[in-house]
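User: Some background: our group keeps a shared notebook of sequences we're curious about, and every so often someone picks one and asks for a predicted structure to add to the entry. Today it's my turn. The entry only has the sequence so far, pasted here. Could you supply the structure so I can complete it?
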Amino acid sequence: MNHAQLKAFHAVAEHGRITAAAKSLGITQPAVTLQIQALEKKYKIPLFDRKGHSITLTKAGALLHNLSSQYFSLEKEANTLLTSIKTKKSARLTISSDLPHRIFPLTENFRQNSPNIEISVTICNERTIQQNLEERQSDIGISQSEIRSPNIDCLEIGQEDMTVTFSREHPFATRAELTLNDLKASNFLVNSSEIGGNAVDQQILKTSEWPELLIKTYDNQRLIQEAVANLQGFAFLSPEEVKHDQRLVSIPVVGCPVKRKEFLVFLKQKTNFPIVTEFKRSVLETTVSQSSAAY
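Assistant: Of course. Here's the predicted structure to add to the notebook entry:
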């Protein structure tokens, strides 16, 4: 298989027609057809089903299309990287995260050291972070969950003991500390988008038996924060996440087997990409500095 054959196959798979594929490649239709025929002849496997003017992928073709998509995505990334280095133009780093309150503290050092790099951030849940990385929609993930996948590296960059968030008007608001058993008489407010994942709420539910009637689900963290402020129950929100909301108070939970953690996640194939390497270095410097300042 040569590059021209794979390129012709990928163009037809993407456009669904030889005419459109030939136009996108800037070559003739017969040239595209010859490349695909040579590929199918070499491996003795049909890659397309042809019925009249209609052309669709076979099972083998669909599998090859998945690989060719990754291949040409990497080719595009390599071209962008080398062009940006040569011309000193801006490059772009895309981040997916379920920790919106941590994005700016963790990226500030990188922004200062790499002012030509544009940072694009998507706020989403754990499953979407993984999906965005594997589909190459994001370069980096910053997550409260340890994302487990054979294609992904997950680096722990920080942790802290668990705290629970209550309204300042709640009877527990004056307590110096609480236990998980203390909490089992109140509504536990859980983010429904994280059910089935490894986020803090789910880890606590897995390690502690909880009265099912007291588990209340909400669509997102903002709704949970408002529900807590309005005395609907408690939530395991980070103190940093709610520090600007004077209606809320964070209380340490003693004896809790779960810690609040942060992870930097990225595709193993991108481990040595310069922009990913630089971001990892910058974040590790930031977290070390923050840990030192805490003592």
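Suggested note for the entry: Residues 209 and 291 are 33 Å apart (CA to CA). The chain has a mean pLDDT of 86.
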